[in-house]
Structures are given as C-alpha cells and as structure tokens.
Amino acid sequence: MVCIPCIVIPVLLWVYKKFLEPYIYPLISPFISRVWPGKVRESNDKNKGKLGFKDADINGLPSKGPTEISDKKKD
Description:
Interacts with DERL1 and AMFR. This protein is mainly alpha-helical. It is 43% helix and 0% strand. The protein has one helix spanning 4-35.
C-alpha cells in the first residue's frame, strides 16, 4: 500500500511543471533574479569544464599526480 503523499506530491509537481509554471514563472522571475543574482550560463565550448577519465579519480574530481589502479588481489 502506498501512502497518499507518495501519490499526490508527484502528481501536483507534474501539474505545476506542465501547466502552471509557464504562466507563473514569468511573473516571479524578476523577484528570483534579485534574490539569486547568479545566472547559470551554458557555454558553447564543449571541452570547457570536462576532464578525461585519466585526469579524474573515482569520484570524478581532478587527481593530483599519477594514480595506479591494480586489478591484482593483495593477500
């Protein structure tokens, strides 16, 4: 059995995103831009901000210096 909020909340969010947000967002966007001035901009440079797998550790963060990954089991 699924609880009522587990059904109602996703449906309400879908209705908001699909039908209400196109009308509400233009009204509230000036206030949001004053409170949160930083804008997220998409760059046309495809390579900017991307690292190859050889330059990143397991978590995707840049690693310092060479790293070795061994497939051998250590006893």
